[in-house]
Amino acid sequence: MKIAVLSDTHDHIWNLRKAIQIIKEQKCEVIIFCGDFCAPFTAVILAESALPIYACFGNNDEDQFAISEKLKAVQLWPLTKEFAEVELESKKIAFCHYPKLGKLLAGTGDYDAVFHGHTHKAYQEQVGKTLLANPGSICGIISGKLAPASFGIYDTLSSSYTSVSLLD
């Protein structure tokens, strides 16, 4: 199973639509979203993928009630505030918004993979037996400057993770 891992859209709907197109082309079956939808309409656009979505809030998701309501309207999985864990294809996966929490979760050794957002910088590392990865950001901004927009794809069959650039 291929799982698309996204974070930090910050309302960049054009990059989000581009990511959804790639997600469909790559035949991903699930989306994990690591926070910072920002505006409620972003959740509706994400739902255009027609895939199951596991998501958590980020620090810029001010109107959590409205985002939750939009997600209910499009029948997505409920959002979590801190972190969530899910088992997909016999892989234990945790996800959150903040990197410190992500590192702590990975350090427990309880998961095959842990994903987080917040920093907007894509990276991956192995923490013991656990893959720890940040998909980067859909918005393509780091500290107020343009940066590569990206997301990740985790393959449960091979336990591999690939960063996907949204550059043309």
Automatic annotation (TrEMBL):
The keyword Ubl conjugation does not apply. Keywords: Metal-binding. Residues 1-155 form the Calcineurin-like phosphoesterase domain. InterPro entries: Calcineurin-like_PHP_lpxH, Metallo-depent_PP-like, MetalloPDE_YfcE-like, MPP_YfcE, Phosphodiesterase_MJ0936/Vps29. Its cofactor is a divalent metal cation. GO terms for molecular function: hydrolase activity; metal ion binding. Its EC number is 3.1.4.-. SUPFAM superfamilies: Metallo-dependent phosphatases. It comes from the Bacteria. It is an enzyme of class 3 (hydrolase). PANTHER family: METALLOPHOSPHOESTERASE, PHOSPHODIESTERASE MJ0936. Belongs to the metallophosphoesterase superfamily. YfcE family. This is Phosphoesterase. It comes from Candidatus Amesbacteria bacterium GW2011_GWC2_45_19.
